[in-house]
What we know:
- This protein is α+β, with helices and mostly antiparallel strands.
- The chain has 3 domains: 148 residues, no CATH class; 74 residues, Orthogonal Bundle (Recoverin, domain 1); 79 residues, EF-hand (Recoverin, domain 1, Orthogonal Bundle), CATH 1.10.238.
- The radius of gyration is 23 Å and the shape is globular.
- 44% of the residues lie in helices and 10% in strands.
Amino acid sequence: MPKPIKLPGYLHMSRNYYYLGWGLTTHRRIKNVIMIMEYVPNTADLTNFTAGGKGAKDMTADQERRLRIAFDRFNEDKSGELTVNELKECLKSVDVDVADDDKMQAILEAVDKEGTGRFGFDAVKGMMMNHTFYQMQNGRHYVALSLLEAESLRATMHMGMGLKPSCMVALRALHASGCILLDWTPGFEPGSEYMQISATQCFRFLDSETDYEEKGVSLLLRGLQENELLAREKFFLDVRSCRRRKQVDLATTALAQIFTTPDEFHLLEYRATKSRVRVLLRAKGMGMLDAFRAFDVSHHGMLTCSELFSGLQWLGLKMTSKQVHDLVRKIDSDNDGLVSFEDFKGAFHDDKDASLRSAATATGAQ
């Protein structure tokens, strides 16, 4: 019998997708998610969502340990406090747009209440627990509709029937990068980009999609992290079996990370490690190919776990054998236990940093 999973409370689906009265002994075709209704029943009830509010779960010991590891990776001078730039690197790793000056100023004021310009572990822990930088709202909902329902709703919107002045409604079309706005009631104000994209990725998961960009995967992970890894995968496979979808091996898709990464703290630790490696390579003036060749002591063109472990130690990043094995599992694209140059470059190259261009590659291109 298929078991449901927990999704964010602001997501809903029309009963036209699945009736509770349908039998569970046979599979029925599930409709594709195409139309989304963004719905605010009463604008007066809109409030900013705080994850650390009433009824919130405390951070587990393992989550706090991983946050501490990430904090130490971002803290380049080992002072025990992050600078503003180091905090920005941390925020980038949790998909915050640090280029938005207004948003950054609001975050800095919320976290640095004393105006010191320094951020200790407790301040970062509180920031992560509360999720205030995600700009989610209570009172705003996203509902998957059938095409017939969307057509009827659109007619109702234009006729002005049954909608209170304090209600906001919009119709969106589901797309890989977001819900495209098609129609809306007068005075409609959309939710934050973060909330829209988060809803989009969760609905794409329900729609059995497997092609995700890195940011989409991380937003989806936060939406599903209350579910056990096996429960996520079983649910996805059960739903996909009711759709006309190509039965590809999930391990070869971008979605694989959802079934191997328990929560956002595991993801933050991984991204903090990548950020730290970039910083250390920059400090040594090494490009990707230079670093890869230096790590590849066996000259086989592939890095083993031992070679990566030794190379990172040489850079100045101390990791346990288990941490290195976990890192390899995340960056190894073909699951053969070895890191190719493309894997290495994909994990540690920063396109915005010209200093990471390989001198060897430049020479070879002449």
